[in-house]
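Support request, priority: normal
Reporter: lab tech (M.K.)
Component: structure prediction queue

Hi team, I submitted a job for Two-component signal transduction system YycFG, regulatory protein YycI from Halolactibacillus miurensis yesterday, and the status page still shows it as pending. I've pasted the exact input below so you can check whether something in the sequence is tripping the parser. The sequence length should be 318 residues. Please let me know if I need to resubmit or if it's stuck on your end.
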Amino acid sequence: MQWGQIKSLFIICFLVLNVFLAKQLLDRGEETLSALPEASKEEELELNISGLEQLDQEKHQAPLLYTNSYNFNEVENIAAELTNQEVVVANDTTLYARMNAPVQLPLDDDEALTTALAQHVYLGGRFNQYRYLEEAGLVVFFQRINYPIFYNTQAVLFVKVNEAGEMTHYMMRALDIVEEEQEDSEQTLITEYDAVYRLYHNSNMLKTGDEVTGVKLGYHNLVSLPNGEQLLNPTWQVSVNDAVDYFINAIEGHDYPQYTNFITETLDDFVELLNPASSRKYTYYTLDEDRAEEDTLLSSIRQPFVTSYHQLTEVESE
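Reply from support: The job had stalled in the queue. We restarted it manually and it finished. Here are the results:
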């Protein structure tokens, strides 16, 4: 055999050996990588979202609530409770009031504010502050039935305040329970942690780097029935980055839509009911039977809230 042939044979053997060794190395590397455990979904959540340490992992219970709109005209001797104010009720369920003398509201003290509302606003003790819109001189309150009722047009109170922080007008709707809670009506809720987990993994609402800044239990309208009743469902409100709120059904775990225009749209609905050109059913309290005075009351209540509406829509359009 010639030397050239022997050399070629050696080169081929070395090439085959190198390919074999390279394959062995690759297989060993893949085995090492496959042996590394994959991060669980819980670990992924905890790596990407902060503020989870504050979350309660206990199981809570709360009932479904069957409610109907509060009828102000069915209350006996309601006028006796309407002190320092002139009142008109539209279509039985929407109450508007003009204060005879402005009432100071301690907007920076929740407990004192609740007391002031209970003293000066009809059913005021049932509401809690949601937001103070200083640029529009407007304070928005949500009704409570054990817990806050989130973004419900039938369970909201608008208070108009002047530059001194004094209440001059208010308008409201409220809900009443129409079916008493039964002992076996308590529903087992998903935990606060589960609500955040679902927002991140199921709804893709949360993004890497977000911080959970608060979780609160409340109620959300699950379904509106033909007779005007509402079925309210326990709901987790998850606040993120102190800027955005998300809502998760606390029984089934699905998310509810966000409410970016709730205040302006609901405010517009309230104001439209005060349009005297419309065919509304109005009932007046603490007023003499004087049609001219009634029209003046409608206008004097409507105008401040129209102004607030325009101020808010101008801010939204900027």
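Residues 3-35 form the longest helix (33 residues). The chain has six helices and 16 strands. Let us know if anything else looks off. Ticket resolved.
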